[in-house]
C-alpha cells in the first residue's frame, strides 16, 4: 500500500471508530501521526492499521483521541445560550418537573468540564432550594480532559466569560486558579463515552430536561451526526431542550424538534410536553421562510417583477446608481423583504454603508429568520470593519439556511485571515460543495460582482492554501 492509501485507510478507521471526518488538507499531519503510532508499537504502518481495524484497542483509541481532538472550552461559553437556558428553558422545565423536583442535564463532548459545571450552576441559580435535585452528566471520549474535569480546578483564563458575582459565589481561589465549590461538584459526574458507539446508560429514553452538544458535530461524519441527533432527541423528555454550537445546524426540519429563537440565539425543543411559555416564540424550520410577514390584511407592496428583474440586471452590470434610481419609484406603505434586500445591496455597493447597515438591521430585526438579511448585514459590517459582529451575522445566515454557500465562504475566508486554518478548511469545503447549487439570485446579490465559477475558483484556492494542523 502507498503512503496515501495508508492515510486513506487511517481516515476510514477514524471515521468508523470515533465518527470523525477530516479535510483533505489534514492528510500530511495524519500521515505523521500514523508513523509515530506505528513506531511506538514497533509495528509497520500496515500492521498497525490491521491491528486497529481487527478488534477493540481501547488504550490506543485513547491515545488517538488525546492526540487529535480539539478540546477548547471555557465556562459560560456563548453566554447568550446560558441566558436563554436560565431565563426560558430551565424555568419552563422546572414548572414541568414541579412534582418530581429534579432537573437532569447532559453535556455531550464536555471536554474538561467547564460546560457541565456551567449547567449545574445555572440549574442552581434557577432552583436554589436544596430540595430540588440538579443532576448533570458530562460525557467525552477523551480520558485526559475527563481527569481535568474531575479535578474541577481551572485557571483564570477558563473563567474569562464568567461574571464576577458568579465567580465569587461558585468558585474558590485555589493554588493560583479557581476550584468549583463542592456544592456544585456534587451535582456533576463525568463518564467516558464515545458518541460513535451507542453507549448504554446515558441515552435512556426521555430522561433529560436539557442537552448541550456544542462544537462537536462539525468534526463528525454525517452518519454519526444523524445517529447522535436521533439519540439525543429520544433522550430528551417531551418539551426538553437541545442546545447546539453556533455552526451546527440540523437542516430544515429535524425530526421531533422545533426551532426556538430567543436572546439572539437558536436552540431546539423536543416536541410534546406542556405548551412552551408565551414568551418563547415558536419558529418555522431553518430556511423555511425568509420573507418578512406582512400585517394581516395589509400585504407589503411589492415592486413590479419587471422593475425588480431590471434592477438585478443593472446590479450585475455594476450600474448601481441606475438601479437605485429605477427602484426609487414612489409606492405607498413599506416595501417587502425582497425589495428591501435589493435596495440594501445597492446601497452597500454604492458605498452608502451606514444607510445599508440601517436597512439590513431593520430587515433582520423584523424577521430574525431572514438568512439573506443576516448575510447582507454581515457584508456591510465587515466593510465597516466590525468583523466580529459580521462573523456572528454570517453564522446566523448559515444556521438559518444550511444550503446557503456564501456565508460559509466568508466565514472560511475570515477564519483564514485570523489564522484558524482548521475552521477555515471546514467552512471552505462546505462552501465549495454548496456553491454548485447556490441560487443564481443570491450570487448576484451577495457575490460582490463574481459569478459562480469565479467564486468557486477563489474558494478552491483559499482552501488549498490552508495548512491544517491536527
Ligand atoms: C471543542 S470540545 C467542545 C467542548 C464544549 N462542548 C464546548 O463547546 O465548549 C470537543 C470535544 O469533543 C470530544 N469528542 C470528540 N470526538 C468525540 C467522540 N467520538 N465521542 C465523545 N467525545 C468526543 C473531544 O474530546 C473534545 O473534548
Question: Your description of this structure?
Answer:
The protein has 470 residues and is of the alpha/beta class. Helix content is 51%, strand content 13%. The chain is built from 20 helices and 11 strands. Strand 9 (257-262) and strand 10 (265-270) form a beta hairpin. Helix 12 packs antiparallel against helix 13, helix 14 (353-366) runs antiparallel to helix 15 and helix 16 (387-400) runs antiparallel to helix 17 (405-417). It is globular, with a radius of gyration of 24 Å. Bound molecules: S-adenosylmethionine (SAM).
Which helices and strands appear, and what pairs or packs with what?
Elements: H1 3-18, H2 27-40, H3 45-54, H4 58-68, H5 79-96, E1 102-108, H6 114-126, E2 133-140, H7 143-151, E3 153-154, H8 164-170, E4 171-174, E5 177-180, H9 182-185, E6 188-192, E7 208-213, H10 222-235, E8 236-244, E9 257-262, E10 265-270, E11 282-283, H11 305-316, H12 320-327, H13 337-349, H14 353-366, H15 371-383, H16 387-400, H17 405-417, H18 421-435, H19 440-446, H20 452-465
Parallel strand pairs: 1-2, 1-7, 2-6, 7-8
Antiparallel strand pairs: 3-5, 4-5, 8-10, 9-10, 9-11
Helix pairs in contact: 1-2, 1-3, 2-3, 5-6, 11-12, 12-13, 13-14, 13-15, 14-15, 15-16, 16-17, 17-18, 18-20
Residues 18-19, 65, 69-73, 77, 109-111, 115, 140-142, 145, 194-196, 214-216, 219, 245 line the site of S-adenosylmethionine.
Amino acid at each position: 500500500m502507498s503512503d496515501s492509501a495508508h492515510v486513506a485507510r487511517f481516515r476510514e478507521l477514524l471515521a468508523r471508530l470515533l465518527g470523525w471526518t477530516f479535510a483533505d488538507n489534514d492528510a500530511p499531519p495524519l500521515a505523521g501521526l500514523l508513523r509515530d503510532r506505528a513506531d511506538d508499537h514497533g509495528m509497520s504502518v500496515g500492521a498497525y492499521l490491521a491491528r486497529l481495524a481487527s478488534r477493540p484497542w481501547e488504550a490506543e483509541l485513547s491515545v488517538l483521541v488525546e492526540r487529535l481532538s480539539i478540546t477548547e472550552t471555557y465556562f459560560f461559553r456563548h453566554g447568550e445560550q446560558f441566558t436563554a437556558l436560565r431565563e426560558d428553558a430551565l424555568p419552563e422545565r422546572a414548572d414541568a418537573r414541579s412534582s418530581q423536583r429534579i432537573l437532569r442535564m447532559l453535556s455531550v463532548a464536555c471536554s474538561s468540564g467547564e460546560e457541565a459545571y456551567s449547567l449545574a450552576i445555572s440549574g442552581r441559580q434557577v432552583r436554589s432550594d436544596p430540595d430540588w435535585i440538579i443532576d448533570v452528566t458530562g460525557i467525552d471520549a477523551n480520558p485526559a480532559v475527563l481527569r481535568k474535569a474531575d479535578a474541577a480546578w481551572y485557571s483564570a483564563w477558563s473563567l474569562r466569560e464568567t461574571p464576577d458575582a458568579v465567580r465569587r459565589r461558585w468558585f474558590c481561589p485555589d493554588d493560583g486558579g479557581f476550584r468549583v465549590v463542592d456544592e456544585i461538584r456534587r451535582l456533576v459526574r463525568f463518564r467516558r463515552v464515545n458518541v460513535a458507539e451507542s453507549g448504554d446508560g446515558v441515552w435512556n429514553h426521555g430522561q433529560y430536561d436539557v442537552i448541550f452538544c456544542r462544537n462537536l458535530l462539525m468534526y463528525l461524519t454525517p452518519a454519526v451526526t444523524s445517529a447522535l441527533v436521533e439519540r439525543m432527541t429520544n433522550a430528551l423528555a417531551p418539551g426538553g431542550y437541545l442546545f447546539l454550537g453556533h455552526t451546527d445546524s440540523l437542516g430544515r426540519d429535524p425530526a421531533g424538534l422545533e426551532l426556538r429563537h430567543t436572546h439572539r440565539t437558536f436552540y431546539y425543543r423536543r416536541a410534546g410536553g406542556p405548551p412552551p411559555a408565551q414568551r418563547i416564540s415558536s419558529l418555522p424550520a431553518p430556511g423555511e421562510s425568509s420573507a418578512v410577514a406582512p400585517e394581516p390584511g395589509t400585504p407589503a407592496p411589492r415592486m413590479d417583477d419587471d422593475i425588480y428583474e431590471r434592477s438585478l440586471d443593472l446590479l450585475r452590470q455594476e450600474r448601481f446608481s441606475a438601479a437605485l434610481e429605477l427602484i426609487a419609484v414612489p409606492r405607498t406603505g413599506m416595501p417587502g423583504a425582497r425589495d428591501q434586500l435589493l435596495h440594501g445591496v445597492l446601497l452597500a455597493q454604492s458605498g452608502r454603508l451606514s444607510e445599508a447597515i440601517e436597512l439590513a438591521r431593520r430587515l433582520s430585526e423584523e424577521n430574525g429568520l431572514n438568512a439573506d438579511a443576516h448575510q447582507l448585514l454581515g457584508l456591510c459590517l465587515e466593510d465597516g470593519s466590525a468583523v466580529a459582529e459580521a462573523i456572528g451575522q454570517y453564522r446566523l445566515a448559515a444556521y438559518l439556511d444550511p444550503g446557503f454557500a456564501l456565508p460559509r465562504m466568508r466565514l472560511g475566508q475570515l477564519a483564514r485571515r485570523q489564522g484558524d486554518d482548521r475552521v477555515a478548511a471546514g467552512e471552505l469545503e462546505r462552501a465549495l460543495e454548496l456553491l454548485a447549487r447556490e441560487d443564481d439570485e443570491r450570487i448576484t446579490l451577495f457575490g460582490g460582482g463574481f459569478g459562480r465559477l469565479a467564486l468557486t475558483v477563489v474558494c478552491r484556492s483559499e482552501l488549498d492554501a490552508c495548512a491544517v494542523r491536527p
